[in-house]
Amino acid sequence: MTDVAADDTNEQREVRLGKRARLLDRGEEAYPVAVPVTDTIPAVRERYADLATDTATGDVVGLAGRVVHLRNTGKLCFAALQSGDGSRIQAMVSLDQVGEESLVDWKAVVDLGDQLFVRGEVITSRRGELSVLVHEWRIAAKALLPLPNLHSELSEETRVRNRYLDLIARPAARTMVRTRATAVASLRATFAERGYIELETPMLQTQHGGASARPFVTHSNAFDTELFLRIAPELFLKRAVVGGLERVFEINRNFRNEGADSTHSPEFAMLESYETYSDYNGIADLVQDLVQRSAVAVGGSTTVTWTDGTEFDLGGEWDRISMYPSLSAAAGVEITPETPLEELVALADRLEIEVAHPIRGKYVEELWEHFVKPGLVKPTFVMDFPVDTSPLVRDHRSIPGVVEKFDLYVRGFELATGYSELTDPIVQRQRFVEQAVLAAGGDPDAMRVDEEFLRALEFGMPPTGGLGMGIDRLLMALTGEGIRETILFPLVK
C-alpha cells in the first residue's frame, strides 16, 4: 500500500469512527450482540428465484449481510448486501417506508463494508432485481476500514496476507474453501465405507519420526523437556495397529522446518492411513479411489476443471512405472540398485545435480527427478524406491536393494505416497541405527532411534499397507492452484 493510500485509509477510519460515535451518542449499538435475522440471503434468492419484474410479495423477511455497493439519492437509497457465500440482494430504503429521520441516519452512518440488518418486504424492482423494501434497518457491525476495490484484482500478497478480504472480494477464494471441505468430507466418507476408524495422535512429540524431514523444536515448561512438532503421525498410528485397530486414518496438521514454495508449506494438512493385510499395491488402489471420489464429489466427474478453465482427467486406471527402469530408459544408461555410487556421482556431476548427503539412494532419486519427473503430468504411480531412503518400508519381496514404496505424481508434483510397511522390529532397529549414523554425519532429515516405537513393534504388527497424502496437494490436483491458494491461512513471512 502506498503512503497516499495509507493516508486515505487513515482519513476514512477517522470518519467512520465519528459515525460509530454518532450511533453510540444516540444510544444505539455499533456492534450489537444480536439482530433479529429470520432468513438468509441465499435462501431468499432461492425461494423467489422466479419472481416477476416489479412484483410485491407481501412477505416480510429479516436479513443481514455486508454492504458491498451503496448508492444514496434523494428519497430512495440502495445497498447491495452480500452473504458469506457471495450471494447478494438489494436493499431499498425509501422515505415513505422508513421516515425522514431514519433515511437521514442511513445516509449519515452507513458505509461500504458495514455489516447491516434489514427487515422489509420481498419485492422485485422495476429492473427485475430481487430486493428488500426496507421497513427497518440497523448496523450489525460498523466497519472502520474501507473495503478494497471489489472491481479490481487483488494482488497475491494481499490475498494471502489478508484472506478475510480475499473471501469478501473474490468468488474463487470462497469456492476454494467449500471445495476443500467437500473433498475432505468425501475422503472421510470413503474411509467410513471401508470400515476405517478416524484417530487423533499427538502433535507434540518427545521424538520426531515417521518421515525424513527437519522438525520444529520447542520446549515444554511443564515437563522441562525438548519437544518436537510432529513431522508425521505414522509411528503413533502404527502403535494403534499393533493394538488391534486394523484400519485407521487421521487427517490433521504436520510441521516441517523446511523450504516454502509452490508445492511446499511448513505447516500442512496430511492424511495418513493404515490397513492390515494390505500392501502397497492395495494402497495404490485405495488412493486412486479416494482421489477419484473426491473429484466426483467436488465437480460431478473424474474430469476436473481447474480455475483457469483447463480440464484435467483423473479417471480410469492410473499408470504404474518402476523407478529404476524408468530412470534407465530416460537417462540412456542402465541404472540398478547395484550401480556403484561413483557412477551415480559422476552422472550427477555431469548434469550439475547437487546432492546434499551423498548416499546412493538419494542420487538415484535426484537423477530420477531430473530425467523422469518433468514428463509426468497425468496421474502416475512411481513404484519401488531405494532402500536407503525409505527406512520405514519393507524390502521388496523379489527385487534386492529396493523397497515396496510408491509415490503418486499428478501434474508433475508428488500427491501421495504408499508402502508395504516394515513390521520386523529387528530390521527396523537396524534401519534406525543407519539413520542415526546419517544424523551424526550432519543429515538434518535423518531419523533417530525410537525405542518406544520399537518396543511396540516387538508385540507384533500384522502385515500392513500405509498411505500418506497431502490434503493441500489434493486440492492442487482438483483445482490447478498453487499450495498457498489451497490453504486458507498460509504461513507468510
Question: Nutshell version of this structure?
Answer:
By secondary structure, the protein is of the alpha+beta class. It is 36% helix and 26% strand.
Characterise this structure.
This protein has two domains: 1-141, Nucleic acid-binding proteins (OB fold (Dihydrolipoamide Acetyltransferase, E2P), Beta Barrel), CATH 2.40.50; 169-318 and 378-486, 2-Layer Sandwich (BirA Bifunctional Protein, domain 2), CATH 3.30.930.10. Helix 7 (171-193) packs across helix 9, helix 7 packs across helix 15 and helix 10 (323-331) packs across helix 12 (360-371). It has 493 residues and is an alpha+beta fold. The model has no long low-confidence stretch (mean pLDDT 93). The protein has helices at 3-25, 41-47, 95-98, 100-109, 156-161, 163-169, 171-193, 234-242, 280-299, 323-331, 341-350, 360-371, 425-440, 451-457, 471-479, 483-486; strands at residues 56-72, 76-82, 88-94, 115-124, 130-141, 197-198, 204-205, 216-220, 225-229, 247-255, 267-276, 303-305, 311-313, 319-322, 380-386, 402-410, 413-420, 464-470. Mg(2+) 1 binds at residues 407, 414. Its cofactor is Mg(2+). Homodimer. This is Lysine--tRNA ligase.
